[in-house]
Amino acid sequence: MEKFEGGCLCGAVRFAATGQPKSVFWCHCQSCRKHSGAPVSVFVGFDHGAYAVTSGEITKFNSSPGTVRGFCRKCGSTLTCEVAALPAEAHFHVGAFDDPARLQPTRHFFRNEQLPWLHLP
To answer: What is the CA radius of gyration of the chain?
Structure first.
């Protein structure tokens, strides 16, 4: 069974997920841009039962109706996004994984909000 490990920039938060991700996708929504500071976010979705926080704690806040975002309280690294429409899943920012090259996005969400100067396949 595959294992994917990751954590925040300072190392205070670590997590591990097992099995195949449910999805790996680009999110172009404005909320993700504001949270990450990047023009687009890439997320990896795992069922809640497929991952565990192995060190520290993910601090969470309600960023908008139906959306809860997680970050490291110590260094501020963006880590997760959970949406009410998919209650069984947690979405981790791909950059938080130790080996993000293993997690290639295959879908786009909120493409209508994509920045016009960002050109992706």
So the answer is: 14
Reference 85, options 66, 107, 57; nearest CA is 66
Q: What residue type is assigned to position 4 of the chain? A: F
What strands, in cross-sheet order, belong to the sheet with 51-55? 3-7, 14-18, 51-55
Q: pTM score, two decimals?
A: 0.92
Nearest to 83 by CA among 96, 61, 68: 68
pLDDT at 121 over 90: no
Banded pLDDT at 24 (limits 50, 70, 90) = very high
Residue 65, φ and ψ in degrees, nearest 5: -55, 125
